[in-house]
């Protein structure tokens, strides 16, 4: 309660009252003066506490203050004030919804779902709660339920291009590629100014192996929307990022990293024929983030990124010149000789060429197509015959032949660790445990074994329990030799405790959709926090 049994001081004659401060705070908020709004709402709360005020007025002051805090990216203060408003006035449906947004932006999508449902219990037709619930369901991979809600919303507003695009994303996640493309094409027809839908069509066709159709879709997307703009969640943005992206080649996955940012992000699509206006681009950017990450796939476009980055004259994160030096064979050469680190000998064979006679292999060996990741076109081969057949089958592509290093643990399981190098930080991302040498986190049975999950959680909580001082020194040496600002390593440990390097590049996937493994969430959020801080540090130095 705001009232008190003690005598209350009367406000000074002519001083603004609580209602005046509530109105002024809302006016500041409406014109984007969020810091002024915060001060005014706080003044209103102080006055309300001193003279007594109606519960509804105080609740609205807390709600307004929470809204302003959220747009200043102060989620903790926003949550505190939404809760204060709801304690006083639980009928404020918008506060339940906005508190859900705070939780969702903080990586707590499941908790956000409960808050959206509470808002809808009080007002079943509250559209912001319904649309935000869709986002939270997608974040927790509850795609079938999300589709049902999207279809209901689209019955009410069939011309909503944003919801139609969301339905396309859900259909893709449910494995319905044709339906997904149809939804995205409809979204494009409804709102050709929404750039993301164009790129989704290209991405889906690429994933289906429809090379010509994918290239045409990306070309159409780049022609219609060469820049994909993602506004900051704060106003004004802390700084402006120009991200260089190349359709149809390997790029750093940033769907999670570029989500809910205090900085504005403009993603420029580079095609081999692109000739962007560096002067115009430089005026709208404080820093450049190069997303081209695969030196094999991007061989044709990376020189364009190099030239553009130099012409822009801005600080560059992940210099494309350095990315060009991260082919698997070049990485193996630069990491050779690190104490406590085993780097497999790696031979690159160009398209159309045969294995050099001087290769002098010891079997088994690993062979893979250049430019592939995640275990695709990647085999362990036991003799010359099998290797010759593999190389012949994929002769139209570059190929790698890689020394096989056994990294099986003493308990018979294989363990693959992933770290992310973010500026000066080395952060754990996941541990995959399985009974086969070719480990991919999503194909393991870790969802069925509590002991595996517990071991992964211990690694994430304290990687120093697994990687000691000498091993972290080796990781720091790897970071320094590679020289990128953001990249990852997949590695194992042999029975002597030496790091076995599998892959080092900036193409490592980091995402926050782990509903089966909620213990991972705080450690994954830490990677995004470090990424945002690293960009802010670069921007401050510009």
Report on the structure:
A five-stranded mixed β-sheet has the order 1-3-2-4-5, sandwiched between helices. A five-stranded mixed β-sheet has the order 6-14-13-11-12. By secondary structure, the chain is α/β, with parallel strands linked by helices. The protein has 20 helices and 14 strands. The two termini are 50 Å apart. The protein is 47% helix and 14% strand.
Write a brief structural summary.
Helices cover 47% and strands 14% of the residues. The protein is of the alpha/beta class.
Main beta-sheet strand count, sense and barrel state: 5 strands, mixed
Radius of gyration: 27 Å
**In angstroms, what separates the terminal alpha carbons?**
50 Å
- Content of β-strand: 5-15%
Give the fraction of residues assigned to helices: 40-55%
Number of helices: 20
Tell me, briefly, the overall form.
Answer: globular
Helix and strand content put the structural class at alpha/beta
Rounded mean pLDDT score: 92
Uncertain segments are 1-15
The overall strand count is 14
Task: Give the tags.
single chain, 542 residues, alpha/beta, 20 helices, globular
Q: How would you summarize the topology of this molecule?
A:
Elements: H1 18-30, H2 34-51, H3 55-71, H4 75-88, H5 93-105, H6 109-122, H7 127-139, H8 143-156, H9 161-173, H10 177-190, H11 195-207, H12 211-224, E1 227-230, E2 240-245, E3 264-269, H13 278-283, E4 287-290, H14 302-312, E5 316-317, H15 320-323, H16 328-334, E6 341-342, E7 346-349, E8 365-369, E9 378-381, H17 384-393, E10 399-403, E11 414-422, E12 425-434, H18 450-461, H19 469-482, E13 486-493, E14 499-505, H20 521-540
Parallel strand pairs: 2-3, 2-4, 4-5, 6-14
Antiparallel strand pairs: 1-3, 7-10, 8-9, 8-10, 11-12, 11-13, 13-14
């Amino acid at each position: 309660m705001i009232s008190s049994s003690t005598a209350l001081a009367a406000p000074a004659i002519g001083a603004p009252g609580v209602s005046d401060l509530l109105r002024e705070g809302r006016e500041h908020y409406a014109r984007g003066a969020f810091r002024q709004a915060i001060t005014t709402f706080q003044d209103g709360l102080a006055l309300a506490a001193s003279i007594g005020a109606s519960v509804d007025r105080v609740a609205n002051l807390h709600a307004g203050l929470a809204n302003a805090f959220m747009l200043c990216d102060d989620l903790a203060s926003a949550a505190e004030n939404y809760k204060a408003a709801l304690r006083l006035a639980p009928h404020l449906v918008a506060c339940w919804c906005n508190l859900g947004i705070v939780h969702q932006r903080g990586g707590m999508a499941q908790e956000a779902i409960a808050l959206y449902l509470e808002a809808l219990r009080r007002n079943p037709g509250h559209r912001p709660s319904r649309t935000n619930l869709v986002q939270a369901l997608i974040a927790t991979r509850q795609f079938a339920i999300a589709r049902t809600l999207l279809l209901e919303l689209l019955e009410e507003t069939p011309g909503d291009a944003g919801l139609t695009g969301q339905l396309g994303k859900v259909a893709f996640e449910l494995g319905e590629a044709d339906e997904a493309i149809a939804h995205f094409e409809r979204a494009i027809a409804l709102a050709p100014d929404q750039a993301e839908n164009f790129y989704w069509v290209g991405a889906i066709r690429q994933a289906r192996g429809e090379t010509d159709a994918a290239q045409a879709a990306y070309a159409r997307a780049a022609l219609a929307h060469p820049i994909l703009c993602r506004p900051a969640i704060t106003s004004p943005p802390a700084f402006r990022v120009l991200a260089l992206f190349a359709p149809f080649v390997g790029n750093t996955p940033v769907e999670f990293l570029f989500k809910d940012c205090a900085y504005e992000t403009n993603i420029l699509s580079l095609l081999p024929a692109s000739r962007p206006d560096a002067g115009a681009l430089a005026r709208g950017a404080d820093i450049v983030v190069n997303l081209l990450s695969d030196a094999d796939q991007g061989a044709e476009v990376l020189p364009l990124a190099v030239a553009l980055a130099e012409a822009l004259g801005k600080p560059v994160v992940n210099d494309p010149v350095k990315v060009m030096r991260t082919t698997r064979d070049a990485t193996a050469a630069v990491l050779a000789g690190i104490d406590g680190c085993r780097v497999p000998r790696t031979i690159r064979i160009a398209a159309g060429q045969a294995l050099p006679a001087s290769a002098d292999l010891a079997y088994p060996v690993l062979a893979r197509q250049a430019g592939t990741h995640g275990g695709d076109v990647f085999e362990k081969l036991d003799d010359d015959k099998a290797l010759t057949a593999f190389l012949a089958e994929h002769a139209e592509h570059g190929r790698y032949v890689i020394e096989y290093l056994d990294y099986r643990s003493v308990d018979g399981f294989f363990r693959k660790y992933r770290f992310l190098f973010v500026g000066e930080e080395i952060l754990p991302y996941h541990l995959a445990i399985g009974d086969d040498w070719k480990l991919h986190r999503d194909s393991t049975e870790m969802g069925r074994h509590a002991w595996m999950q517990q071991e992964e959680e211990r690694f994430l909580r304290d990687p120093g329990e697994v990687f000691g001082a000498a091993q972290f020194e080796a990781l720091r040496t790897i970071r320094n030799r590679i020289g990128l600002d953001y990249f990852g390593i997949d590695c194992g440990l042999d029975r002597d405790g030496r790091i076995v390097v599998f892959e080092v590049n900036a193409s490592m996937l980091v995402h926050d959709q782990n509903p089966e493994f909620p213990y991972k969430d705080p450690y994954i959020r830490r990677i995004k926090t470090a990424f945002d801080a690293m960009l802010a540090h670069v921007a401050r130095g510009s």
